[in-house]
Amino acid sequence: MATKISVAAFPIVVLLILAPVWEAAPAASQDSASLITFYKDALPILQKNCQSCHRPGQIGPFSMLTYDGTRPWAKAIKLAVASRAMPPWFADPRYGHFNNDRSLKQAEIDTIVAWVDHGAPAGDSQDAPRAIEWPAGGWQIKPDVSFDLPPYPVPARGIREWERVAFPAPFKEDTWVTSVEILPGTPAVVHHMCFAFHKHRPTTPYNVYEWMDVPRDEDGVMKNRDGTTSGPSEGIVVSREVGSTEEKRRQGRATVSLTSQNEFCYLPGLPYEDYRPVNAGVFVPAGSDIIVSLHYTATGLAVVDRSRIGFTVTKVPPDKKFVPQEGAEEEAPPVGRRQANAELAIPPYASNYPGPPADITFLKDVELVWLRPHAHVRAKSVEYKLIYPDGREEIVLSVPRYNFNWQLTYRTSVKIPKGARMHVQFFYDNSTANKYNPDPGRWVYYGGQSWEEMGTPNMGFLIDRDADENDVIWER
User: Fold this and answer.
1) Domain 138-314, what architecture?
2) CA angle, corner 229, sides to 377 and 385, nearest 5?
3) pTM to 2 decimals?
4) How many angstroms separate the CA atoms of 92 and 400, rounded?
5) Residues forming CATH 2.60.120.230 domain(s) in the chain
6) Would you call 450 exposed, middle or buried from its count of C-beta atoms within 10 A (0-12, 13-18, 19+)?
7) φ, ψ (nearest 5 deg) of residue 74
8) 296-327: per-residue pLDDT in tens?
9) d(C-alpha 58, C-alpha 187), whole Å
10) CATH assignment, 325-468
């Protein structure tokens, strides 16, 4: 039975939305044996590739669970799949191998197009595949344990800095977590929501939002850039207790950990992290804290966000342990990175500006299992190039058309030896040709807000499980 932990007192996704269009039914004389129908031909494709988003409670603007829900949108579906706008997938097929490639095969596209061109007939409902039993409550993965964040009031206007808040982890003993899903209550205002597990420290307060006061100019641009996005490491610390509107200010350093929180994230288009297909997990010692990094963006309408986190866990320790590029707490990171973020300055109207490259050195043998490039609305493209110790080069990911509204994780399996290097290069489009550009006439600098820019080459790795983690048993 699932366990639910509730903490009392805790992006804008751009979708292709076209008006529904009805088309004439196919002529009665059409050969029924060769007729492409919804139930026999289209529905299996929609189940596999589309229904995870196009169902009630998800980000799709209409449901594809039934014929009646799908049929009015037939022409829009045809245009979306024929142009490869949907399902969203941006990796250049010439490079890398990805086990979560969600792009349609040409035969699948041809089937959808032919179905629509012949009037989008229903066909015989007896031909339909068995319906997928989607988890209740909007989840993509049914959680064993869920955790409710406190309601968060997002004002209609104003700048929200990156905030951090700590809670006790919802596990009574040492636990192996095998998947994580962050379910935002109001996705339109969630710029990102990330968290990591940390050993509890007596100085870490629970249920207190904390952030650094970031000096900004009249246009909201961060001053005194030092290559960090969450504010200075020392200065004015602002805090607010969960459920309160009173803000307290003090001089010094934040008490809630400011270490990287990229182990698990919600970003627009990124629904979950699932380690079960590769028999891996994340080890969470008993007594750990969850430290959440929140960043909300005002949209002109005051809302209250109610986000949740869901976990699956295992009683049997998996073969492999997942490790983020920053490394697990109190462990040496698997990589070292050099990137002059503070030097990023994109000129007005520049259409293909190279940002400061990231040069990453591998400090141990690892298996690269996912890549998640992150940037903002002026990002144009990104490329990850792996250089082996013998000098051999391999492009493991190229995204020629980066899309801020669909920040995907690209899952792969690449064995990387110690001493190899990864060179990651982002390019930016600050011109009028970029339809997401809020102001092409301004210089753009590094920063954590969407109108500022960044280029983060996130990666995740697997390593062998430690011997002393072999006997963990979790009891519900």
Assistant:
1) Sandwich (2.60)
2) 65
3) 0.86
4) 7
5) 325-468
6) middle
7) -60, -45
8) 999 999 999 999 999 999 988 999 999 888 88
9) 10
10) 2.60.120.230
